Amino acid sequence: MPSTLSERDLKVIWHPYTRQKDMPPALPLVRGEGALLFDENGKAYIDATSSWWVNIHGHAHPYIAESIYRQALQLEHVIFAGYTHEPAVRLAERLLPLLPGSPGRIFYSDNGSTAVEVSLKMAIQYWWNRGVRRRRLLAFRHSYHGDTFGAMSVSERGVFTVAFQDYLFEVAFIDTPTAVNLDALQDQIRAHGPETAAFIYEPLLQGAGGMRMYEAAHLDVLLETCRSEGILCIADEVMTGFGRTGKLFASEYTEHKPDIVCLSKGITGGTMALGVTACSDAVYQAFVDDDKLKTLFHGHSFTANPITCAAALASLDLLEDPACADRRQRIHRQHLAFAERLRAIPLATNVRVLGTVLAFDVATGAGYLDNVGPLIARYSIERGIMLRPQGSNVYVLPPYCITEEQLEAIYGCIEGALGELKTR
Ligand SMILES: *Cc1c(COP(=O)(O)O)cnc(C)c1O
């Protein structure tokens, strides 16, 4: 009989994004507090990646926990077609004025992938409802928009999607903008402008594609081009939202605003799964019609779950506290200083910082399946630091509540790991 939690897990669980052959035992965690997680023996780990980019205020935050508890005692769930409740309405009322481009409506779903699916269906049906034939979708190379089929289709085709290639719909991919290719990209957009339904992009920061950063001013030019061609712009702010890039939303860095915004990850402070797709009134109006076929026939059983909405409202309270912005500023300054230290290390290349995100590539030449990632992850976990490099791309993306000392411990660990790699 298996006895430890890791052994029991090995018998019954299939973990996400985890190779099953020779799967190493998963680390059991029993408790969290601030930026720390604790295992069964009380050993502490610093969560350097915000538990897959979702946690912003720290683990087991009592304020969010209490909101969840109170809501669970009052109304835990109700069908959201034809019925409504305070947490869903209140959350929409609070989100709409905060969001870039002052959208008019909020559509709820369950996670980042569904928020993206909904955005694509909104955009496609927007044109269909208006009787306009625009079928082409445009996305960036190296993008990641989720794991459902629509989201996979608009994502970079690579190791994540190769088995499903034949089932993904056609999407036109363009490079992310640079000073050099900007004119060419505009030409590419204009060449098929009248056939293009929508352009989906991760503003400024492509997360799962390897924490790639690009300039807001360049994105702005592409958004302007899309606008002049009548192409709907969909900002996938699933990872960049809620303060991650410095501003509340990365789309605040650009003058031209999206028609549709996708949110998830940080929205509940990393406590519960929630997806939001916000759209402009112009998009929404295309669905207001006598013709029943112009309805958006989409919805999930747990749409606008009241407990989840209560968690999001509590997280917003914490996010709007000026102290939270100060913490993000402090992380940013520490990141900038560490970036200078990294630039002195030859193995660390392409060192970059955006808001609370620091990333660099280990100079090995290989991609996502490269083994330096697992080596650095193993080195750091032994030292109580939870890092999860993407191949040779190493990044630090901490909860905003992380202390100066905890962040310094992460940096020290990375320097130590790079020192080990050098002598390998
Ligand atoms: C994580 C992510 C998604 C998918 O969100 P899930 O909640 O994992 O389905 C979509 N878009 C971006 C930009 C993401 O980082």
Automatic annotation (TrEMBL):
TM annotation in the entry: none
GO MF annotations, alphabetized: 2 iron, 2 sulfur cluster binding; adenosylmethionine-8-amino-7-oxononanoate transaminase activity; dethiobiotin synthase activity; pyridoxal phosphate binding
Necessary cofactors: pyridoxal 5'-phosphate
InterPro entries listed in its UniProt record: Aminotrans_3, Aminotrans_3_PPA_site, BioA, PyrdxlP-dep_Trfase, PyrdxlP-dep_Trfase_major, PyrdxlP-dep_Trfase_small
Keywords, comma-separated and alphabetical: Aminotransferase, Biotin biosynthesis, Cytoplasm, Pyridoxal phosphate, S-adenosyl-L-methionine, Transferase
Biological pathway: Cofactor biosynthesis; biotin biosynthesis; 7,8-diaminononanoate from 8-amino-7-oxononanoate (SAM route): step 1/1
Known catalytic reactions: (8S)-8-amino-7-oxononanoate + S-adenosyl-L-methionine = S-adenosyl-4-methylsulfanyl-2-oxobutanoate + (7R,8S)-7,8-diammoniononanoate
Residues that hold pyridoxal 5'-phosphate according to the record: 112-113, 236, 300-301
Cellular component terms (Gene Ontology): cytoplasm
Entry's EC annotation: 2.6.1.62
Annotated positions binding substrate: 52, 144, 265, 299, 388
GO BP terms: biotin biosynthetic process
Keyword S-adenosyl-L-methionine: yes
Residues that bear N6-(pyridoxal phosphate)lysine: 265
Compartments, as annotated in UniProt: Cytoplasm
Superkingdom, taxonomy of origin: Bacteria
Function: Catalyzes the transfer of the alpha-amino group from S-adenosyl-L-methionine (SAM) to 7-keto-8-aminopelargonic acid (KAPA) to form 7,8-diaminopelargonic acid (DAPA). It is the only aminotransferase known to utilize SAM as an amino donor.
Family statement drawn from the similarity comment of this UniProt entry: Belongs to the class-III pyridoxal-phosphate-dependent aminotransferase family. BioA subfamily.
Subunit annotation: Homodimer.
Name of the protein in its database record: Adenosylmethionine-8-amino-7-oxononanoate aminotransferase
Gene name of the encoded protein: bioA
